[in-house]
Write a structure and sequence with these properties.
The strands form nine sheets. An eight-stranded parallel β-barrel has the order 17-18-21-24-25-26-27-28. Strands 29-30-31-36-33-34 form a six-stranded antiparallel sheet, covered by helices on one side. A four-stranded antiparallel sheet has the order 1-2-6-5. The chain is of the alpha+beta class and about 775 residues long.
C-alpha cells in the first residue's frame, strides 16, 4: 500500500528528463516536497545501492526505495513539516558517504538581482555568479552560478562527484538564463567545471567565466576560493589615494611582466609573495612611482604574455594563489608604490573549454564572423550590445578595483573596440546602423564603464591604449567624451622613435617628429609611452633602434629619455629599457639582467635613476602636464641644428625649468639661447655628464642672463650645448649681493652705495661752490 502511494506520487516524465540529463529544474523533483500524503524526498544518485534519510538531531532514519534502476530513489515521510536531514548513501562498490541534500535549499539569487544582470546593471555580479563559499540555513557550503541561457541542461562536475554530469544538475532561475546550485559541506580548494548539454544533445565541459581561481596550465579547471580570506593593511594608502589628484602629481610607470622580469633557477616562476619585495625594492631604487603589470588574469598561452585571457576574474596560477596576489598588492601599497593592471576587454581566445560558444551558441561573441572574429589575432570579439556581456566586462574592471585594490586599469587595444573595420579588409566587417565604421555598442559600453568606475571616487584610474585620433577619449562624459582618465600617446611614441632611429644627418628633414606632438598635446590627457609594443612585438630593444656605434647609441638613448621626461604628459617605460638591454628578446622573452654587468648599461641605469629623481623633485615637470601654461617653446625651428629649447612651468616663476635638447653629434660652444626671464640659470642636469657615460660637455657655472635679444626674447644666456644630449637649467631671479670683505665686515648694499655716492657728490658740489667764490673774490 505504501509503495503504491509512493509510486503514484512519481512524475515519470520529469524522472526520465533527469535520467537522460535534460532537466533544467532538478529542484522541482529532487529534494523534499510537501504533499497531502506527507513529505516526499527524492534523490538521483547513479551507482547508489541504498540510501537512508537520516533526520538531523534524531535517531530516526528512513530507507529510500529505488524507483528507477538508474539510481532514482524516493521515500515518503510522515508529517506536514519538512525536517532537516542528511542522505546516507551506500554505493555499489561498498563505499558510503553522508551529506546534506543540495536540493533541500531554495534559490540563493533573487529575481531582482538576475533582472539587473539581464539589464546589464548588476555591477557586483562577481558576488553572484561564479563559486562563493557561504553558509545557508546554518549549513556551510559553496554556491555556484553560471549564465548559460541557451543550454538545455547545466551540471556542476568535479572531483566531488566523479566528474559525472548526472549527479549535480543545476537549477535554471526563471527566464534569466542563470543556473545555480548550493552544494553543502564543500569548501575552498574544490576543483570544478560546468558540464553543459546544448540543444541538439552535444555535451561539453566549460571552465567558469567568473571563477576566482584556476588551475595552472595546461590544466584548465576552475577552483573554489574565498577572496575574503586575506587581511589587508593598506588602509593609509587607500585613504590617501582618494584625496590625490594624479594629474598634478608625478607618474613614472615601470611596465613589466612578472614571469619574465626575474626567474628562479630551481623552478619556472617566483611566487607573488617572493616577487613583492624584489619588485618594490627595485622600483624604489630606480625612482618610479607605479608599476604596470602586463595581464595577470589567467591565460593558457605563455607566449601571449597574458593578452589572450580565459579567466578574467582569476589571477594567473603561474605565480600563486589569489591570496598571494593580494599580498603582492598590499606590499606595494605599504611601500608607497601604485599598481596598474593591463586589462583586455577587446577580444578573447577560441579555446573550447573557455568562453567560446559557451552554451552551444555564440554567447559572449557575435555569431557573424564579420562581427565576432578578429582575423589578425585569431581571437573572438565580444558582443558589447548584449547587456549580460557588457555587465561581465564592466563588473570585471570594478572587481579588480574592489577585491585587489588596484590603483588603475590600462585598457588594451581600445582602437580595435571602437572601429568595426579594425584590422579588416572590405567585406570582412559589417557597418553600424548609420552605415559607419564606429562600433557604437562598444563605445556605449566604454562610456558606461567609465561612468560607473568614476562613481566609486576612490582615486583609481582608467587608461586607454587608443592608437587613433578618436576624439575626446579623456573628455568628460557630460561633454560627449568617452571618460577615460588618461590615454597612451601612441602617436608621440611612433613619431619620436621614428625620428630617433634616423642618422642625425637626416633628422633635419624630419624635425616634425619632435615637435608635432605639442600641436595636439592638450587635446587629451596623455601618458607618454615607450612600451612593450616597441620592444617585444618587434623583438628589438630601444638601444638597437638608435643610430651610430655603441657610444652614440647610448648618447642617443639618454637624450631620448631626457626629452620624454621633460615633455608634457605622464611617463611609462618598459622593463629592461631603463638599463638599455641591447640583447634581442629571445623566444622565452626573458629580461636579460646580464647586460648590467657591462659598464655602459650600469651608467644608463644610473642615468635613469638621476633622471627620475629630477622628475620627481621638480613640479614644473608634472604639475601642469595638462595645462598649456605648463609649457612654452623658446626655439622649435632649429631643424638644421637638430635642437629644441623650451620651458616647463608652474604657477610659481622660481620653479621654471629651461630645457635644451640637442639631437645632433655636434657640441655647440658659446651657444646663445633666449630665456623667459632676467636672472640666473643653473644647470641642474646634463645627459653628457661623465658619470652617465658622456664626454663631460657641461655648464658648471651659473649663467647670468643679459639684455640681448634672442629667440624673440629680450634676455638670453650663452651656454655649451652637449652633443646628443639634454641640459636642464633651473631659474633664479637675480638677488642683490650681500657678500663679506676681507675684514669680515659686510659690504655695502647697492642702496648703501647709492647713498654714499650721493653724499660724495654733495661734498664735491660744495667744494666746487667754494672754489668759484674764491676765484670771484681774487678777480675783484
Amino acid at each position: 500500500m505504501a509503495e503504491d502511494k509512493l509510486y503514484d506520487l512519481m512524475d515519470w516524465a520529469e524522472i526520465e528528463a533527469l535520467v537522460y540529463s535534460e532537466e533544467d529544474n532538478p529542484h522541482g523533483i529532487l529534494g523534499p516536497h510537501l504533499t497531502e500524503e506527507g513529505v516526499l524526498i527524492q534523490a538521483y544518485i547513479p551507482t547508489a545501492d541504498r540510501i537512508m534519510v537520516q533526520i538531523t538531531g534524531k535517531k530516526e532514519s528512513y530507507e529510500m526505495t529505488m524507483e528507477d534502476e538508474n539510481g532514482f530513489f524516493a521515500v515518503l515521510l510522515p508529517g506536514k513539516k519538512i525536517p532537516k536531514y542528511t542522505l546516507y548513501v551506500i554505493f555499489d562498490d561498498g563505499t558510503s558517504i553522508e551529506y546534506v541534500d543540495p536540493y533541500a535549499f531554495g534559490p540563493i539569487l533573487t529575481e531582482k538581482e538576475t533582472a539587473k544582470f539581464n539589464a546589464g546593471i548588476c555591477y557586483d555580479i562577481y558576488e553572484k555568479l561564479g563559486a562563493h563559499p557561504m553558509t545557508v540555513d546554518g549549513v556551510p557550503g559553496v554556491h555556484f552560478a553560471v549564465w548559460a541561457p541557451n543550454a538545455l541542461r547545466v551540471s556542476l562536475v568535479g572531483d566531488l562527484n566523479l566528474w559525472d554530469g548526472r549527479r549535480l544538475p543545476m537549477r535554471r532561475l526563471w527566464n534569466s538564463g542563470i543556473f545555480e546550485l548550493f552544494v553543502p559541506n564543500i569548501s575552498a580548494g574544490e576543483i570544478y567545471k560546468y558540464e553543459i548539454k546544448a540543444k541538439g544533445g552535444l555535451t561539453f565541459l566549460k571552465a567558469d567565466p567568473y571563477a576566482n581561481r584556476a588551475e595552472l596550465r595546461p590544466a584548465t579547471a576552475s577552483i573554489v576560493t574565498d577572496l575574503s580570506d586575506f587581511n589587508w593593511t593598506d588602509d593609509a594608502w587607500m585613504k590617501e589615494r582618494r584625496t590625490v589628484d594624479t594629474k598634478k602629481q608625478p607618474m613614472a610607470i615601470y611596465e613589466m611582466h612578472l614571469g619574465s622580469w626575474r626567474k628562479p633557477v630551481d623552478r619556472e616562476f617566483y611566487n607573488y609573495r617572493e616577487l613583492a619585495p624584489m619588485v618594490a625594492e627595485y622600483i624604489k631604487e630606480m625612482g618610479y612611482t607605479h608599476v604596470e603589470l602586463m595581464p595577470v588574469m589567467e591565460h593558457p598561452l605563455d607566449a601571449s604574455w597574458g593578452y589572450q585571457v580565459t579567466g578574467y576574474y582569476a589571477p594567473t596560477a603561474r605565480y600563486g594563489t589569489p591570496q598571494d596576489f593580494m599580498y603582492f598588492m598590499n606590499y606595494m601599497h605599504e611601500q608607497g608604490i601604485g599598481v596598474i593592471l593591463d586589462w583586455v576587454p577587446a577580444h578573447f581566445p577560441r579555446d573550447t573549454w573557455g568562453m567560446a560558444e559557451f552554451d552551444g551558441t555564440c554567447l559572449y561573441e557575435h555569431k557573424d564572423p564579420r562581427q565576432g572574429s578578429h582575423p589578425h589575432w585569431g581571437t573572438l570579439i565580444y558582443n558589447y550590445g548584449r547587456p549580460e556581456v557588457s555587465n561581465f566586462l564592466i563588473a570585471n574592471a570594478l572587481f579588480w578595483a574592489d577585491k585587489y585594490h588596484v590603483d588603475g586599469i590600462r585598457m588594451d587595444a581600445v582602437a580595435s573596440m571602437l572601429y568595426l573595420d579594425y584590422g579588416k579588409n572590405d567585406g570582412e566587417w559589417v557597418a553600424n546602423i548609420y552605415g559607419g565604421n564606429e562600433n557604437l555598442e562598444a563605445l556605449e559600453m566604454l562610456k558606461h564603464l567609465n561612468s560607473i568606475f568614476k562613481k566609486r571616487k576612490d582615486g583609481a584610474i582608467l587608461i586607454a591604449e587608443e592608437s587613433t585620433a578618436w576624439p575626446k577619449i579623456t573628455g568628460d562624459l557630460d561633454d560627449d567624451g568617452v571618460g577615460f582618465d588618461y590615454k597612451w600617446n601612441m602617436g608621440w611614441m611612433n613619431d619620436f622613435i621614428g625620428y630617433m632611429s634616423l642618422d642625425p644627418i637626416y633628422r633635419a628633414a624630419n624635425h616634425g617628429g619632435l615637435t608635432f606632438s605639442m600641436i595636439y598635446a592638450y587635446s587629451e590627457d596623455f601618458i607618454l609611452t615607450l612600451s612593450h609594443d616597441e620592444v617585444v612585438h618587434e623583438k628589438c630593444s630601444l638601444i638597437n633602434k638608435m643610430p651610430g656605434d655603441l657610444t652614440q647609441k647610448f648618447a642617443n638613448l639618454r637624450a631620448a629619455y631626457g626629452y620624454m621626461i621633460c615633455h608634457p604628459g605622464k611617463k611609462l617605460l618598459f622593463m629592461g629599457q631603463e638599463f638599455a638591454q641591447y640583447r634581442e628578446w629571445n623566444e622565452a622573452k626573458e629580461l636579460d639582467w646580464e647586460d648590467l654587468e657591462q659598464k655602459p648599461n650600469q651608467e644608463m641605469q644610473a642615468y635613469m635613476k638621476a633622471l627620475l629623481k629630477l622628475y620627481r623633485e621638480n613640479p614644473a615637470l608634472y604639475a601642469l602636464d595638462y595645462d598649456p601654461e605648463g609649457f612654452a617653446w623658446i626655439n622649435a625651428i632649429s631643424a638644421n641644428e637638430n635642437m629644441l629649447v623650451f620651458t616647463r612651468n608652474t604657477k610659481k616663476k622660481d620653479e621654471t625649468l629651461l630645457i635644451v635638447c640637442n639631437f645632433s653629434p655636434l657640441v655647440y660652444e658659446d651657444h646663445k639661447i633666449g630665456v623667459p626671464y632676467s636672472g640666473k640659470y643653473k644647470e641642474i642636469f646634463n645627459s653628457d655628464s661623465v658619470e652617465f657615460g658622456g664626454a663631460g660637455n657641461t655648464n658648471p657655472r651659473v649663467k647670468q642672463s643679459k639684455k640681448s635679444e634672442c629667440d624673440d626674447r629680450e634676455d638670453s644666456v650663452t651656454i655649451k650645448v652637449p652633443p646628443m644630449g639634454i641640459s636642464v637649467f633651473s631659474y633664479r631671479k637675480a638677488e642683490p649681493k650681500a657678500a663679506s670683505n676681507k675684514d669680515g665686515k659686510a659690504k655695502k648694499t647697492v642702496a648703501a652705495k647709492k647713498a654714499t655716492t650721493a653724499k660724495k657728490s654733495a661734498k664735491q658740489t660744495k667744494k666746487t661752490d667754494l672754489k668759484d667764490e674764491l676765484k670771484r673774490k681774487v678777480e675783484a
